[in-house]
Amino acid sequence: MRNLSRGMLALLLAAGLGGVGGTAHAAPVRAADDDVLAKLKAIPGMTVEEKPSTLSGYRWFWLNYRQPVDHRHPERGWFEQRVLLEHKSADLPMVLYTSGYNTPETMFLSEPTGLVGGNQISVEYRFFTPSRPEPAVWKKDTIWQAATDEHRLITALKAIYHGKWISTGASKGGMTATYHKRFYPSDVDGTVAYVAPNDVNNKDDSAYDRFFKNVGTDPKCRTNLESLQRELLKRRPEILARMSADAEKAGYTWKIIKTVDRAFENSVMDFEWAFWQYHLQSECKDIPATTASTDAIYSYFDTISGALTYTDQGLEPYIPYYYQAGTQLGWPSPQFKHLHPLLRYESTYQPRTYVPSDIPMRFDPSAMKDIDHWVRTRATHMMFIYGQNDPWGAEPFRVGPGSRDSAVYVAPGMNHSGRLLAKLPDAQRARATADLLRWAGVSPAQARTLSVPQVAEDPMLAQRPPL
Question: What is the sign of the dihedral through the CA atoms of 100, 105, 107 and 108?
Fold first, then answer.
């Protein structure tokens, strides 16, 4: 639920985490795949457009699949769900990448796709535009409805792709992959969920307070971040003036959150969280001193928290997420003791604040309890991977005595990334990779011969609200 910053994508690109390199290539077509376009078009409710590929060896198809707004009552309306397919060969494994948000309009391969050398579909989550029913019946923006979207899609595509299926996703995408596995455990042969929060008890968020008290190995960094948060609040008039000027220049407004002052405080409360989510401890040296100029402090604040995150224009694309956080997923509520008594609007730090008031919301605490219980007692062929310094990992999924062939891994010193398997210690990386290949039906010998183009993280991950 946390903020996004305008500079975050640039920072991730600089760190080698965002974007997809390479130039366009004409993808070779195997004889057995000559009719894949015709097969896709033959699926009832599917429209298909082939686009020029930018990954060697892959064809790129933009699909729109007709889904019921309510899977229990399909007669009540339909919408078009966008799915981007990177096709290599119908006899290779298929990786279902669940974004949890929009799907990027660019070719990229998730880490599991690169490791198994297979095909990939990137599925846009319901209610994110353009995959939004009209009118938007918000009470159908639920985890079960979304899981059933994926179930119908998988069922349709298995008529073409007969190999093993792996599901994956990062952040809300990792959550989405987990929920789908809970409701339809036989749809895929394995799941790799990255940095997926598990807010099983929304009323107890003490784990986040413990996290911020101990994150990293540099106490001075933690102290400097908290000091700069307080300094921002002390310079409230100067910061508000700069935020207002930036919003006016961009033509942005503050109607949903009511005032620029509330938006300012929400972004300040985001600040420490956003640093650890998207940055590494090595970047602590870049934190300005509290004696720095207001311009320097504001620039850093904008980079980390995003000064215009809580404008109407910043919130609007992510209303489907905020709605779900406030009705089923839950949300973190850290205690900001170090900011008292400088805060005025601490109670606004919740999803209800970010959703237009004319959209009804009611929280259901049973949804995440059900998911958590299932993972601990029934999960099979599931892998959860977290970054050690990522706040969202403070409340992780855990496998229990009833889980089978499942594991949880933590990448030392890492943040909120969807490419963490490669960052695990050697022995853990070898074990996790072997499990993934086994689930996908790829032998170690086959894996060594794979020819996979340069891959990168979902380039939109840095543009989303951090959950």
Answer: negative
